[in-house]
Design a protein that fits this description.
alpha/beta; Rossmann fold; seven-stranded parallel beta sheet; globular
């Protein structure tokens, strides 16, 4: 396949590009720069609505992974960037695909399990309704932006990503230093569920979505074995041979601005990848224990 990627320089995007190239696909990157670009790059500027639609016609698929990192102080400006970097950028890219002749037949766009909101012990599949909160609203508008009525005839997949784990970056890379010093521990009471996926399985799931014609709409990109936060932290500490007794009270976390603690750190989302499993996708790392032992020992 000839695949165009937006967001190819990020944690997931860079790994996806390497994986697709190693699998024999041709990959081109959308890059935000005004200077000359490489042969495998196309310059664009979503803020200025600048993307030559005639260049999209040669692609079999477009993958959109753009989005401001959720980590950081949730000031009003930060939350505006979280929203606009997803919805505005996706809407512009979708409109460019719609204007292309012919259109790339496949559009895979990132979304997130934040769509479900914090739901306690409830098991969540792609059929579960939207939850409440800032991120749930962002995800709803994100998925709507990726699927306008003008994209008739394009197969659209909204990948609802869980916490993507790899020692090279993302959440796990930030956890490792304190855990290696024996300073890890549960957040709040640790009973909330965390839905995760290894970076290896994440990029494999994206390729699977590109190649599997039966997949469309929301698709949970998570391991089939979500973990409670307290079990997650104990397992990580055990693999590193360190204690994990330093609890962070929920009240302290809630001092962070903008609802970041309740939306991200303490949110309980027990998501299951029902569509991936039904379509025959197999995980390299369905078990968190297996994943930690493989990548940390």
């Amino acid at each position: 396949m000839n695949i165009l990627i937006a967001g190819s320089s990020g944690f997931i995007g860079s790994a996806l590009r390497k994986h697709l190239l190693s699998s024999g696909h041709t990959v081109c990157r959308l890059v935000r720069q005004d200077s000359s670009v490489a042969q495998d790059e196309i310059a664009w500027n979503p803020a200025r609505q600048n993307l030559p639609t005639d260049k999209l016609a040669v692609f079999d698929a477009v993958v959109n992974l753009c989005g401001e990192n959720l980590l950081g102080l949730w000031t009003l400006a930060k939350k505006r960037r979280i929203y606009s970097s997803r919805i505005d950028t996706t809407a512009f890219l979708a409109s460019a695909i719609a204007a292309s002749r012919p259109r790339p037949p496949i559009f895979v766009c990132a979304s997130a399990i934040g769509f479900y909101g914090s739901r306690g012990d409830e098991i969540l599949t792609e059929q579960s309704p939207q939850g409440k909160g800032f991120l749930a609203g962002v995800c709803l508008d994100w998925e709507k932006a990726a699927a306008p009525e003008s994209l008739t005839g394009v197969r659209i997949v909204n990948l609802r990503l869980g916490m993507v784990l790899d020692p090279s970056g993302g959440a796990l890379a930030k956890m490792l230093p304190p855990f290696k010093m024996g300073l890890g521990g549960p957040l709040g009471d640790g009973t909330h569920w965390q839905s995760w996926i290894s970076l290896t399985d994440c990029v494999r799931a994206i390729e699977f979505a590109l190649l599997t014609a039966s997949l469309s709409g929301p698709v949970n990109a998570v391991s089939p074995q979500p973990m409670r936060n307290i079990d997650f932290t104990r397992l990580l500490a055990d693999v590193l041979g360190k204690p994990a007794k330093l609890k962070t009270p929920a009240g302290i976390l809630r001092l962070l601005p903008g609802g970041f603690a309740d939306e991200v750190l303490l949110s309980s989302i027990r998501a299951i990848p029902q569509k991936l499993l039904n379509a025959g996708f197999t995980f390299h790392y369905p078990s968190l224990c297996e994943f930690f032992k493989s990548c940390l020992r």
